[in-house]
Write a structure and sequence with these properties.
The protein is of the alpha/beta class and 103 residues long. The protein has two helices and four strands; from the N terminus they run ββαβαβ. It has one domain: Transcription Regulator spoIIAA, CATH 3.30.750.
């Protein structure tokens, strides 16, 4: 990863199958939060049961960034609910769908 300038956000998706990690680096602010929201929306497919957000290299989180992180959690919860409804009668997976922030 090249050095980031202030106001830049770098995202890298890792993992396969049902578990994914989204690595973030740089600033999470009003300008970059929509990028995160868009990526999270793409990761809310029914076949992804766990999404980890690695925030270890995030240098700034402003209010819009916090809102994007909370929206990520809500989006994953909605996806999990849809997945459970689609499998009506089948037992829910033990882990469910979750967003884990690390860093």
């Amino acid at each position: 990863m090249a050095a980031l300038r202030p106001g830049e956000l770098w995202l890298e998706e890792r993992g396969v199958d049902a578990r994914r990690t989204l690595v973030l680096a740089g600033d999470l602010d009003a300008a970059t939060a929509p990028v995160l929201r868009e990526r999270i929306a793409r990761l809310c497919s029914p076949h992804i049961s766990e999404l980890t957000l690695d925030l270890g290299d995030v240098t700034l989180i402003e209010a819009h960034g916090t809102e994007a992180l909370l929206a990520a959690r809500a989006a994953r919860a909605t996806a999990a609910s849809s997945r459970r409804q689609a499998s009506a009668g089948a037992p829910a997976p033990p882990q469910g769908s979750r967003v884990v922030a690390s860093g």
